Amino acid sequence: MREQRFPGLSIIVTEDHVSRLIWALQEFGATAVETRDETTLTSAGKGRVVLIAGFADPIVRNRASEELHKEWGGLEITASDVSDDGWSAGWRSFFEPVVLATIQVITPWMNPRESGLTTIVIDPGQAFGTGGHATTRMVLRMLESRAMEGVLPSEMADVGVGSGILSIAAVKLGVEKVLGIDIEEESMNATRENAAANGVEGAVEVYLGTPRDINGEWPLVVANIDLAAFQRHAGDIAEIVAPGGEVLLSGLLVDQLEECVGLWPGFDRGGVLEDDGWAAVSLRRVT
Ligand SMILES: C[S@@+](CC[C@H](N)C(=O)[O-])C[C@H]1O[C@@H](n2cnc3c(N)ncnc32)[C@H](O)[C@@H]1O
Fold it and tell me: 80 and 127, same structural domain?
């Protein structure tokens, strides 16, 4: 059998940068990131960690490498193909089902973990969002709790739709129409394919663009991006939230929460969730 190879990046970092760097790698399109430290066979020595990131496409890998060099000058980054020394099996084992109170997110090769839960199947392709990341999980929880309280509206906008996971979950939870946008071309296919695989393609529309490209006012807007994006786009996102409507923001480190909330005059702060050093907040438009 021919050996399978994946475009990869290997990066040596100090321990304190691991969490942010894994986030950045996923943001730039890595489909899996493996961590090798002192406890594993390949290691970079005490206090240093080797991150091996796998990508579905060499173009995405090369772009990720450029972006990392730009944003994290001084990193030791090596681009190479990752040969299949168990990588594909390892790649698959990287994903765990995400099981919440009423929904579970699995990949196509997994069996549902629990019966009686709404199952969402997400193929980890080139776009971010398998539910495994704390920032996604927190928005899923917020959507789920609104569905359980019976206050989920019939329409939602998803800014930074990624794999489509939040849009698909929203529809499965009862939202009738979702508009998703993203600046990444890969996310268009990923969202369309994942929506179809979950039988909700009729309810999820997706476009390439930024928040400024969304028309109308929406009773619910979700945006799992990052503080820098909110600093740039809070005004545009605020405009598409209907009066009395809600925006759920994620992608924030806990210590970025206050700064982010300050970007939304005319909004009242609702609940905050924290998970693994990340925070998500709900804000309600009052003016
Ligand atoms: C962290 S991922 C979230 C994906 C998915 N919604 C989730 O919750 O797992 C952030 C997504 O936002 C997109 N993005 C970043 N900046 C954006 C912007 N200014 N406008 C629209 N999308 C943006 C990225 O391409 C990426 O797909």
Answer: no
